[in-house]
Amino acid sequence: MSPSRIKRALSRARYAAMGAAIGGGLGGLFSRNAASSGAALGAMVGAAFGETRLSARERIDDVKERSSSRVSGLRSSSSSD
User: Per-residue pLDDT tens for 36-74?
Assistant: First the structure.
């Protein structure tokens, strides 16, 4: 398993656990059945959020890398003029 897949799985799991805790807590204010349903729904939303957040962060890091390489390329070409 590649490091990026492990990182993605851990991100999903982290946010799913937080979503389940929040959903279960809010649902628990109403009834035991609502707590169970709230936890399940919260886990699904959390997992989706974790997946989205990680892919967005990877894109941002890629853009930063590309822009820094372009800037360093511009600096080296302007110093040789």
Answer: 999 999 999 999 988 887 677 777 877 778 777 766 665
Dist. CA 36–CA 43, nearest whole Å: 11
Cα separations (Å) of 59 from 9, 17, 69?
Answer: 17, 24, 15
Residue in the structure block whose two tokens are 């709230």: 38
What pTM, to 2 d.p., does this model score? 0.66
Nearest one of 19, 20, 38 to 28, comparing CA atoms: 38
Whether 42 contacts 21, CB under 8 Å: yes
Token pair 């993605």 in the structure block, residue = 8
